[in-house]
Every structure is written in C-alpha cells, then in structure tokens.
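notes to self, project folder thing:

trying the whole complex as one job this time. last attempt i did each chain seperately and stitching them together was a nightmare. two parts in total, labels are on each line so i dont mix them up again. if this works i'll redo the older ones the same way
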Amino acid sequence: MATTSAPSTAAAATGAPEPVLAVQDLRVWYGTERGPVRAVDGVTFEVRPGETLGLVGESGCGKSTLGRGVLGLTPAGTALDGVVDFKGTNLVGLSPKHLQKLRGPELGLIFQEPMTRLNPLMKISEHFEEALRTHEKGLSRQQRRERALDALRGMGIPPSRYHAYPHEFSGGMRQRIMIALALVLRPAFVVADEPTTALDVLVEAQIIKILADLRKNFDTALVLITHNLGIVAEACDRVAVMYAGHIVEQGDAREVFANPQHPYTRELLRSTISLSTTGLHYIPGSPPDLVRPPTGCRFHPRCPVAMRGCAEHEPPEVVLGSGVRTACWHQALEADPSLGEELGQGGRDALAAVKEISVADEA
Amino acid sequence: MPTKPDTESAARPDPSPGAGSGQRNDVLMEVEDLQVHFGMRGGALARISGRGGGAVKAVDGVNLTLRRGEVLGLVGESGSGKTTLGRTLLGLNRATGGSIRYGGQDLTELSERRLRPLRRRLQMVFQDPHASLNPSMDIRTAVGHPLRIHRLVADDEEYEAKVAHALERVGLTPAERYLSKFPSDLSGGQKQRAVLARAIIAEPELLVADEPISMLDMSVRAKILQLMLDLKRDLDLTYVYVTHDLASAKFFCDTIAIMYLGRIVEQGPAEQVFNEPRHPYTKALLAAIPEPDPNRSVPRNLPRGEVPDAAKPPLGCSFHPRCAAALPHCGWERRDLRALLERRWLDLAPDEYARERALIGNLDALAEPGPTRVLVTPGRGHSAADVLAYFRRLREEASETEPREPFWGGVTTMSEDGGQVVVEFVEARDPRLLPVVDSVSVACHLYAAPGA
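result (full assembly):
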C-alpha cells in the first residue's frame, strides 16, 4: 500500500502499553490455477494487551484468511509475507514446530462452530486436562482442576457439570466452554472467528457480553472477526474494516461508527438491516475477484463518490485528527491538497463510469 | 404435562384477534388450534396418541389469521416451532390436531393427492439456496419444474417463454444468460433469485419464506428483501416470513407472531409489537439485538439460560425459568431448584462450593421434569434438617437482594419428611394467548384479566 505522509505508528500515545501483536504489510496469497488469490494484500495493524479489535467486511474480503494467517494456520500452498511481530518474535517464517508450541499458551483461536470442535467422546474435564497437561507441565492434578473450574466459572458453566459430555450441553454453553478452553491457558493473543454466528439471539447477546468483559478481566488481546457491525459496536475497542484484502479504515470503534470516513464503511453501515431501518439500501455489485483485483482503489467500481483518479491510483493511507486511519483519495486530498497532482488532469472529476451494476455481478 | 389450564380463560380465545373490522373475504387462511407433535421413541400407539413415548410439541395450539396481501412474520429462536408451523401451513408436515382453513377446505384433512394441486397456489422458499436447487439441473429445468408438475404449459415454446419471463421478473436478465447455467455457476444471491423465480412461476398466492436471507451475505440481504417486496406488489402475493432476525422482520412484516417453544407468546401488528413489546420474552429479544449505534448498548440483565429442550418443556409458561418478572404460578418446579443452586454455585469459592454441593444427594434427579412436589435427598453425612436450613437460608438471603429472585415466590412450603426434604410449589397455570389491547394478544400472566 502506498504510504505517503502517514506517520506510521504515531498512534502509540504516551503511556500506552506495547502492542502484543504488530502486523506489518502482511500478505497472504493462495495459489490457484488462475494465478495467486491475493486474499490479504498488505495489511498493517496492531493489538495491545486487553484490547479487542473487530475485523469486519463482506464475505470474501479476507477477514478469516487474515485471522488464520496471523496464527500461521493457512493451508498448504499459501504464501505468507510481511511481519507478524508477536512479543518480539516474527511469526512469519517460524518453523511449524515452534509455532505449534506457541499455539495454546500464547496464541488462541475460537472457532465458529462450537458443535463440531469438542470431541464428543471426551468429557469436558478431559478436554481441560489434556490442554493443561500438554502446555503447563508443572501443574498438579488439583491445580489443573482448579484452573479449569475457574475458567468455566468465568463463562457461567456450573462446576457441577465438569464431568459431563459435550452433548449434554446446549449450543451456547458449548461455545462458552470453547472460550473457556481457549482462555484456560491464558494466551496473550486470541482470534475469535465469527464466534456467535450459529447461536440464537439471546445466547449471542450473552456471548457478546462475555467477550466485552474479557478486556476488563484479562490481559488478552483479541481479534474478533464478524460480519455483524452491531457486535463490533458492542464488544470492540477498535475496528478495522476490510475490503478486497486491504484494511480501508481502522480506528476507535465509537469514532468509526459515529463518523465513518471511508465510503465503503459508510455504505456497509447504511446497508445493515437494523431495528432503525426504514428503507432498504445496498451496495451494488460484489467484492472483486482477488486474482485480478481492480486497479487504483479496489472499491472504486462500487463507490458512489469515486473520482476518475480513483480508478488508476491507489489511495494513500492517512491518519486523521481522530486517530482513524483511512485509505481514500477524498480524505487524502483533504489532508494534503498537493496530492491532487498525482491524480492527474481531470482526476478529481466524478467517475461517471459507476455504471449500472447488474445482478450478474451480485454476490 | 399435568398443567392445569388457566381456568378463568378456559374459553378459547378469539382465533382472529382484531378481526372486528376485517371482512371475511379478505382472509386467505385461518389456522385454528393447530398442533404438530412429533412422536419420539415408544410404541405405535404412543406415537399416534402423541403421549406415552413422549412427543415434541413443535407446534402446540396455534391460532392465526392470514389476510390477503399481508406479510405475516413468524419470529422466534431455534426450537420455537416457527419452521414447522410454516411447513405445516403448506401441508409439508402433518398436523396432529386443529385445522387450517384455506379456500373452503381444511388442509389438515386432505390427502397428499388432494394437496398437490393446491401447492400450485402455496409455495415455499427455503433457507439455504445452495441446497434447494438440484445441482445437476440447469436453471431452465429447475425454474420451470412446477410448470411440468402442474401441467401448465402446452408446448416447449410456451415453457421457454414462461421460464424466461419468471427469470426476468426476479432480476436475472437477460434470461438467456442464465437458462443453461447450473446452480454452481451462480452466486448465493443469484441462486436465491432463481429459487424465487421457481416459486412464482406457477402463479401462487401464498409464499412461505423460511429465513430467505439468513444464509446470504449481508450486502445481498437488502436486495433480496427488496425483490420480495416488488414481487408481492406486482403479483398480489401474501407472505409468511419465518425468521429469527427481528430487525428484518420489523422492516418487512405487517403482523408479527413471536413464538417460543411451540406457542405464540405475542401477536399483533408489527408496528405495535415492536414499539411496545409486552411479553417479557419479546422485550428481551428486542433488547438483545446488537445495533451498530455506538450510543445504544445491550443491557446487562439478559434472560439467563437458553431455550429449553422441547421434549421436556418447562411446566406452565415455557419462558418462566428465564423470566425476571415471573409470578408464583408461572410453573416453578424441581428443575428450577437445580438451576437456582447451580447459578449460586457459580459465584462461590471452590471450598464453599464443595461444602454446599455435598448437602444435596440427588442433584441429577432434579434435572427431570416432575410434579409440583419434590423430595430432596440429603448428601452422605448430612441430615434433612441441614438441607432444610440451607434452603431456608437461601430464601432469606434472596429476599434481601435485588433483583428479586422470582423462584422463591413459587415455593409454598418446605418441610422435613422421613429423612428427606419436601419442597412444594404453587400449582402451575398455563398462560393463554389473550387480547391485551385492541389487536395485540399476549400469553403472559402479567397481562391476565384483572380480578384473576
């Protein structure tokens, strides 16, 4: 991503703790017959202890790939490039064996489908025993039990159910057990990939509350991947909006939702059907094919305020006064009008070519 | 379930709340006391009677009036019976009781052969567009299938024309581009459009749409909803919209029925139900939706627990174990005692928990549904007096804390008997769906007629 005047990590305000995880210019490409799919293409962000970062965007924007890529959980044949600095160690290029050691005690993952991630033949107690025995060899039997019960209690699972099997629990309880299982090893960094998608409305709200409380009670840094903007507003400190492999806007969640800067963020918020919806709005077209992404700004074919220059020149990332970082020519030009030259003659004219996007291009 | 019905309202409620002004001829379908019970294990007799081996009461006494041209929303969490009810309206599930009046006939009494011709007018759109199209059928064959089944076309030319017309109706233009494609060539939104084309091609008057947008990417949801609104306007359709998503239901529906464990708990015009929810369950559902508005946040006092097992529904009002406003006669029973203890133990230190847990000998026996009187066996080394004192202490403590624990209101007496503790509960009463204000009906004792 072309960066101009953007003071890179100026957000590190005085007194703020060091980030647990700092991702710099991460690229995750999948090999296909048609060429590489640039699922994550130059992404930079960081997460501090006790902070929750929400990762949002449509399907196919690279959210899940980013979450997996950070943990090194990408399938074979994936190219990973960039820096994932976890407490001073670069996870990119680390040996699988070394990575495996970090997963669990240092890096955690909470999956989408709680039904399929617990072994139906193992009691809940055995799941915890196994995790603790593998990663915390020094603990006595009694200590392991106490640690497990403690983690379960924090998630609202009564200790009297410790020796039950997974099928004896409801979906919401299983998801809470999964979260407890990820947290019992006290990892410094956790990725939660759509943790509430398969759950009922009221249970989803309970899980969101638990995730929102995490940042108060633990020092865990959490990346929460979701397509539900409401969950981000509820449970996250900061938000990163992804589009076509790029982060197009990131910053304080309240600020981004109150004053969305990037046109994609604005359109995404407008097209969400919420209780206050009085008219239907949608973004025409669908996210692009990441084998051959559009030139210039990747959102320009769907953008209601695209300019001629947007189709040719990639927008620089700018840091706004509010601390929000965004990659859009409109904000860039406002911050530094001299950039207009880069767009060339007539580059600021409205892109009339936001042509009729038909159903043929729909997601 | 040995639950005494609400005596003061034993008379069946008006099946069509607020029907006062409506003329009879604008009613498309009338559902009366509909029951769909699924037999579980047990003998054939038990299955037929819906008793004995146990039955899941997926739909348990539902009354609905569906008016021409309206969008009726069936809203609830998983296990509420909304999907079963929607399917039963089309005869895709067999009703075990009650009636569905449609076009002068009772759908529940018709044989499959007699139902078939009616299905031309009654169509369904399923949740998963990927699963509802045959992967080896091209769009031409799939969308036109109803025409062949109901023998609505004379020749191939007419068939082609009708399929092309239906595709264009749903926005798949130009139709030639899609006719020879297979479902795997289409995106999720396009598939759902093709499914809608298939549903409207035989010119139905009622469409039951079961979560038509929940499997779609959020950028497409609004488009499909808009398409459904356009189709309804152009083709004079009536919709039954089955969903767990209250936000889309609020926008999309004219009338709403909120379902919980097989029953309708609140019913009325969408605007009134959403602006002034009355049933504690409806209130909780609405409060629990996370909104992208940074100034609004989900309250902390959400209903505890989850939707109970439909095979063993709670006594009385199914929602009472999760309800903060529950009354003494809402149906308290032994399972609630267990839940209360387990909730208390969550906050205790491990040694304190171990001490209290040891007092109760038969905790697992408290997990089964049972009558309003329960025997609690003391744990080894403890006497009934210890347990009784423990319960009394809990009740004492509960009376001093806020928010009020509704469970203790449902306990009439606690006593010692033959080495066990007997806890007796107030007899449960089933809330009936009763009109509260002109067109809104609620099934909740909080809204029972005054003087009850």
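what i see at first glance: The mean pLDDT of chain B is 87.
need to look closer tmrw
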